[in-house]
Write a structure and sequence with these properties.
Blueprint lengths: L1 E3 L6 E3 L11 H12 L12 H5 L12 H4 L7
Antiparallel strand pairs: 1-2
Length: about 80
């Protein structure tokens, strides 16, 4: 897969560059540093922390292990 390095915009190829999508370890580390220094941020919180504290979070809980207890259950 061909792509441009998100840091320096050099052409990269997943078949050639071990640090893909970055062109080098230097660019990969710069990107990590940008996250660590909060230069990059997630634009909007996924959950409102006050709602989570009050148990009002709109999250979905998937009980994946429940199906392992009844492997021949035809209703699910």
């Amino acid at each position: 897969m061909k792509h441009k390095c998100p840091i320096c915009k050099t052409e990269t190829d997943s078949a050639v560059h071990a640090d893909f999508p970055f062109c080098s370890e230097r660019c990969r580390e710069r990107d990590l540093g940008n996250w660590a220094s909060e230069k990059y941020v997630v634009s909007e919180p996924v959950f409102d922390e006050e709602d989570l504290a009050q148990g009002k979070g709109n999250s979905i809980v998937l009980h994946l292990d429940d199906d392992l207890d009844k492997p021949n259950d035809t209703e699910h």
